């Protein structure tokens, strides 16, 4: 029973459950009455929200897309910040980060389906490795404006985070970069179909 009341365990479970909340799906259904799980890429992320809602309500699409990014990022950040306030260890904080991203990508509420983890990854990285994440976010924004390919911009931004964090001392206080790499691996893995389309020159742009 002590296991069930252990603070670390409670935060780890909360991280997965909160990370699993499909905000994109909820927002699109509530405000645009569309099911993004049955349209577009069928992802619950902001890009698919933007793509699908734009077909019926272009003026609303951008707002819902931005709201999805913010909420998906916050569901990673908020649990970490609360855990920090409780004084949990750095190892637990990184465990929370990994489970938040896993929750988004493999949501318990959607039969272990979900999004691709970019915004939630950004949310946990900004709390734990802020300098590297700001660098990655800048790369993401610049690439998005220039390339207008969401998946490629996201992956380039993620790569910039990993490279930056590997060269600067930015909060990795667990004696290993493995948790950071694991989060990146999950996001890369979820983007394999996009990477294949990029190689084939078939990945669509978001205008």
TrEMBL record:
InterPro entries: G3P_acylTferase_PlsY. One of its GO terms (biological process) is phospholipid biosynthetic process. Signal peptide: none annotated. It catalyses: an acyl phosphate + sn-glycerol 3-phosphate = a 1-acyl-sn-glycero-3-phosphate + phosphate. It comes from the Bacteria. One of its GO terms (cellular component) is plasma membrane. The keyword Cell membrane applies. Pathway: Lipid metabolism; phospholipid metabolism. GO terms for molecular function: acyl-phosphate glycerol-3-phosphate acyltransferase activity. It is a multi-pass membrane protein. The chain crosses the membrane at residues 9-28, 64-86, 93-112, 118-142, 149-168. It is found in: Cell membrane. Keywords: Acyltransferase, Cell membrane, Lipid biosynthesis, Lipid metabolism, Membrane, Phospholipid biosynthesis, Phospholipid metabolism, Transferase, Transmembrane, Transmembrane helix. Its EC number is 2.3.1.275. It is an enzyme of class 2 (transferase). The keyword Transmembrane applies. Catalyzes the transfer of an acyl group from acyl-phosphate (acyl-PO(4)) to glycerol-3-phosphate (G3P) to form lysophosphatidic acid (LPA). This enzyme utilizes acyl-phosphate as fatty acyl donor, but not acyl-CoA or acyl-ACP. Probably interacts with PlsX. This is Glycerol-3-phosphate acyltransferase. It comes from Malaciobacter pacificus.
């Amino acid at each position: 029973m002590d296991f069930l009341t252990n603070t670390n365990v409670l935060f780890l479970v909360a991280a997965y459950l909160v990370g699993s909340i499909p905000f994109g799906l909820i927002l699109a259904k509530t405000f645009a009455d569309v099911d993004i799980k049955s349209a577009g890429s069928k992802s619950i992320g902001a890009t698919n929200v933007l793509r699908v809602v734009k077909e019926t309500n272009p003026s609303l699409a951008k707002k819902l897309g931005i709201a999805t990014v913010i909420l998906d990022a916050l569901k990673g950040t908020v649990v970490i910040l609360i855990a920090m306030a409780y004084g949990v260890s750095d190892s637990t904080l990184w465990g929370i980060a990994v489970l938040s991203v896993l929750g988004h990508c493999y949501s318990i509420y959607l039969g272990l389906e979900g999004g691709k983890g970019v915004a939630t990854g950004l949310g946990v990285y900004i709390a734990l490795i802020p300098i590297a994440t700001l660098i990655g976010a800048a790369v993401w924004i610049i690439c998005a404006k220039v390339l207008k390919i969401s998946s490629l911009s996201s992956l380039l931004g993620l790569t910039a985070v990993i490279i930056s964090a590997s060269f600067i001392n930015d909060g990795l206080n667990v004696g290993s970069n493995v948790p950071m790499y694991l989060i990146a691996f999950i996001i890369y893995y979820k983007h394999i179909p996009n990477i294949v389309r990029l190689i084939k020159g078939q990945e669509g742009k978001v205008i």
